[in-house]
Specification:
Strands 2, 3, 5, 6 and 7 form a five-stranded antiparallel β-sheet that branches. A three-stranded mixed β-sheet has the order 4-1-8. The protein has three helices and eight strands. The chain has a single domain, classed as Immunoglobulin-like (Sandwich), CATH 2.60.40. The longest helix is centred in the N-terminal third of the chain and has 25 residues. By secondary structure, the protein is an alpha+beta fold.
Length: 150
Amino acid sequence: MKIFFITPLLIFIWSNSVMAQVSDERIVEVVIEVRGIEVERGGNIIVMLFGKDGFPKKHDKALFTQTKMATKNLMTFRFELDMEEIAVKILHDENEDGKVTKNWTGIYPKEGLGFSNDQQVRLTGPPKYNYSKLSKEHFRHGLNISIKYP
């Protein structure tokens, strides 16, 4: 009688460990190196990872966010992702308000920004998701993104 109870229990434990191994293969560690940080400006570096929804303006819709004090010209951020594509926005949040501060025009950013695929803010507006998105095959090997300052 004990053998019949132990056998299903072992099968259950084995199947759960196999399922955990399969799901772990989908998770990728993404290393993002942020370059060109002007440390003398102070503040924080915020790295945001988006799906299509909210990119790049709605920070509260970022799927993953990390914030670190701007202490070096090159800083590294690590994320564990189970996604097929993402777009990245980096903000040098000098005044630490969590938003992109605009210059005197009220249109152009006053703080440094960086985007995946080296996209930039233009006269036509902020970068579009379709031009900024990266596939898993691209971001799984790490990313280098430079901050551009006005």
